[in-house]
Design goal:
The chain is an alpha/beta fold. It contains eight helices and five strands; from the N terminus they run H-E-H-E-H-E-H-E-H-E-H-H-H. The protein has a five-stranded parallel β-sheet with strand order 2-1-3-4-5, sandwiched between helices. Helix 4 links the parallel strand 3 and strand 4. Bound molecules: 5-O-phosphono-beta-D-ribofuranose. 5-O-phosphono-beta-D-ribofuranose (RP5) binds next to strand 3.
């Protein structure tokens, strides 16, 4: 991790349980790539409600700018956190065993008017997008972060274009043992 990523966190990644970690790690990886200082904490709305209130209430004073909150099932963490801070909160629905994360998604997205939570997709894709969305929010007032987001987007485009060129080459000249030979 670079010096910048180790300095005072701008993004707080919180999750309801350590079992959410494989999903939320995707957000941390993106923020690390973009050299955005962040922290990862376990904050449960149901099992540690006092700690959740304390974390959310102190977040702004601690210098955090955006909170990414991931939870599964009765996923109250993003909404309850948003109710105790004016910082933007992005909710990541974590997949669940029985309802596959639909429960998490609906718990996060169906907030009452007045308490906003930005809900992203279920699972790691959502965590990736939560981090990119947080970076874009920070990029509104930080040109360096905005440029890193731009480079990330350009690199992604280049990767897909390269995959397309490789696929096109493969279609023109299938390797020996390919489908044409088996027919
Ligand atoms: C939620 O309950 C957590 O966010 C997690 O997704 C889910 C299950 O937690 P564990 O029983 O795995 O700790 O609060």
């Amino acid at each position: 991790m670079s010096r910048r990523a180790r300095s005072a966190p701008l993004v707080g990644i919180i999750m309801g349980s350590t079992s959410d970690r494989p999903v939320l790690d995707a957000a941390a990886e993106i923020l690390t790539q973009l050299e955005i200082p962040h922290e990862v904490r376990v904050v449960s709305a149901h099992r540690t409600p006092d700690w959740m209130f304390e974390y959310a209430a102190r977040a702004e004073r601690r210098g955090l700018k955006v909170i990414i909150a991931g939870a599964g099932g009765a996923a109250h963490l993003p909404g309850m956190t948003a109710s105790k801070t004016v910082l933007p909160v992005i909710g990541v629905p974590v997949p669940t065993e029985h309802l596959k994360g639909m429960d998490s998604l609906l718990s996060i997205v169906q907030m009452p008017g007045g308490v906003p939570v930005a809900a992203v997709a279920i699972g790691r894709a959502g965590a990736v997008n939560a981090a990119l969305l947080a970076a874009r929010m920070l990029g509104i007032s930080d040109e360096k972060i905005r440029e890193r987001v731009r480079r990330h987007q350009q690199a992604q485009t280049a990767t897909v274009r390269a995959a397309d060129r490789a696929a096109a080459r493969g279609a023109q000249s299938p390797p020996s043992g390919g489908s044409a030979k088996r027919e």
